[in-house]
Structures are given as C-alpha cells and as structure tokens.
Amino acid sequence: MLENFTDDAREVLRLASLFARHCRHDHIGTGHLLFGVTSSAGQGQAAKALDVLTALGTAPQLVRDFVLGRLTDGNEPSPRHLPFTQNTKQVLEYALRSAIMLGSNHIGAEHLLAGLARNSSSTAGQLLADLGITDLKVEAAIRDSTPAPSPTAARTFGVYVPVGKSIFKNGGKVYPDLATAEAAHPGQEIAPFPLQLTDGEFFDVGAALPENRFKSWGSFASYPDAFTAAEQFRKNSSGYEIVIRIATPVTTEHRGKDADGRDVILGRTVSYDRVRVTSRVLSSRQRGESSTPTPEGASLV
C-alpha cells in the first residue's frame, strides 16, 4: 500500500515517526499520525490537508496543540524500528478506501486525515470528533477543494479490435493502442471500440489463482496503463493467468440514531467485489515460453 502514497503522505509518516521518537514512544499511533498531517500541510500538494481543515473551521495549530495535550512522554528511548499500532494500520486502510471513493489513484495527506476521522475509537479519531470533524465532512471538503474531475469519473476509452471480432466473446482480442493491435494482426483491418466506465470504476490488475481467487497487483484509471502493468506482471508470474478487471464500487450506508433520536448516517463502507468485465492476458505458460513471444492482446469475456 505504501507504494501508492504521494510524497506529502510519505512526509506525514516521516514526521509521525520523528514525533513518536521525540515522545520516547515505542510505536507510531494515530496521534503521531495526526500530528504529522497537520505539521506537513504547509506547501505544495500537502496544502490540500490544510485547506480541508480550514474549510471545516479548524486551524492546524489548534489540532497540533490538542495532540500535544493528549499524549504523554514515555520513559525509555524509542527502538530502532517503530511499528504501526493496529489503529494506525486501520487508518491507512481507511485512507486507501477514501482515496478510491474520491477517484484518486494515490493516497495523499488529505486521505490520511479522512482515515483518521473515520477511526473514531482511536486517540486521533476521538480528538477530531471533539472538534466536530468526521470522515464524511473531510471527504466532502476534499471534493469541494478538487476542481479537476476525478481520474475515475465517468469516461470512455477507445480500445482496438480486429474488424469482425467481438470483445464480449471468448477469442475476441482487445488492445490498448492501434500499433499493438496491428502488430498482433498484420494485414487485418483494425477498428476502435468504445469501452465505457461509469463514475468510480477502475481497472484492477492481478492474478487469477486456483479456486476462483483473485490477488490484486494494482489499480489503474486507464486501460493502456492497466494493459502495460498486466504485461509486466505476466513476465514475473509463475504461469498464473493475469487478468484486468473493471471493478465497480458498491457503497453501503450505515444508519443509526443520534443523541436526539434522529436518523443519521453513521458512516459508509465501499467494496469492490462486483466486477463488470474481466480482460484476460495470456500467461507465460500459455504462450509456450517463447523467447520472442508474438504480441498478444487480452480477451474480454
């Protein structure tokens, strides 16, 4: 997951580690992470977290003061390696989900803030709740501060197929660009085919394992990027079939009652267990382990 972090999110983790060592703690907790978010949000892309806090009526310095007031110093020097607490690991998972929900292929400091707010049972989550900050408010502020359309907004890709072939039947091939299609089918007429994605959908590359299991390797906003990654993954695989799935988000709202007995949304979860289309990229074993393999496309079934 850390490979999907932006530079500002990595800076947050660095500052959180430094702060934990300053406090002489033997772990990186959510309080340290929140301190890192508010300390790094000063310039560049990291300023988005600052914009979110400001939009919610809270100054980063106020949050840092709250963190300093909640954490007590330890008595022993910190070890060389500082592990994440279970709550911090959960925050990182929540941050990933927020990033995907908001149409981002990377996790930024603002998504870490949303993850911290969502884990309401942690130190940072309780602190943010005291300030009236929830994950839903953070995500709404992120949307408001993002003028450009999200990478996973509704969009259409022009993939390429031989004329007369259907990409929705076994044996039909699909290619990310015209050159790749022409190289695989010399002398045949090639035509573009519109592949439409709805808002929130993305391309998920991974290996099809036995017993209908799927191991994801990475997610991509465009088919050409997913195709290139699938080919790279295939070369390093052990004969497993490599597939490109179009993953569709399924959002579930969790409702309950507030202190006044009113119906409210307590939170929401997003799952990507629904797959609309699967594109199969031949594995090295299926290709016959040729030293100079013929360019192949992917079969959509």
Q: Which features characterize this protein?
A:
single chain; Double Clp-N motif; 38% helix; 11 helices; elongated; alpha+beta; 301 residues; six-stranded antiparallel β-sheet
Structure report:
The chain has 301 residues and is an alpha+beta fold. The protein folds into 2 domains: 143 residues, Clp, N-terminal domain (Double Clp-N motif); 146 residues, no CATH class. 38% of the residues lie in helices and 24% in strands. The chain contains 11 helices and 8 strands. A 6-stranded antiparallel beta sheet has the order 2-8-7-6-4-5. Strands 1-3 form a two-stranded antiparallel sheet. Strand 4 and strand 5 form a beta hairpin. Helix 2 packs antiparallel against helix 6 and helix 4 packs across helix 7. The C terminus is likely disordered.
